[in-house]
Amino acid sequence: METSDMLERWSEYIQELFYDERGQQPETQKPIEGPPILKAEVEKTINDMKNGKAAGPDQIPIELLQALGNLCIDQLTKLLNRIYDTGNIPKDMLISTFITFQKKNRELQNVKTTEQSASCH
Fold first, then answer.
1. C-alpha dihedral over 98, 103, 106, 112, to 10 degrees?
2. Any domain includes 20
3. Domain range for residue 95?
4. Where do the DSSP E strands lie in the chain?
5. Which long-range contacts (CB under 8 A, 24 or more apart) does 39-45 make?
6. What domain of life is recorded for the organism (predicted)?
7. Mean pLDDT for the chain?
């Protein structure tokens, strides 16, 4: 199979995988409210992340976020709560990288895709 054919098939596969059949979401009259994201929740999430994993498009490894400690946790908590309150996600946080792995002796249709979401900023 030619490289261009494989790239085209992957493009089709990703579009099918993430196709949203729900249509346009209805507008709500009042905002959805909930408790704020807690500093302890952000800290636990960062500490629970596995070390030694590849950094996302921002090139910030989890080990750096862990080493920065409270400074990082405070800033991330503020950022996440701003996103939660406003619904506006920074464009840089919407970037992700798809890494494809083809198993030996398998058809292209059986290839699995691993999504690596952008790391926290």
1. -30
2. no
3. 33-117
4. 96-101, 112-117
5. 39/73, 39/74, 39/77, 42/73, 42/76, 42/77, 42/80, 43/73
6. Eukaryota
7. 79
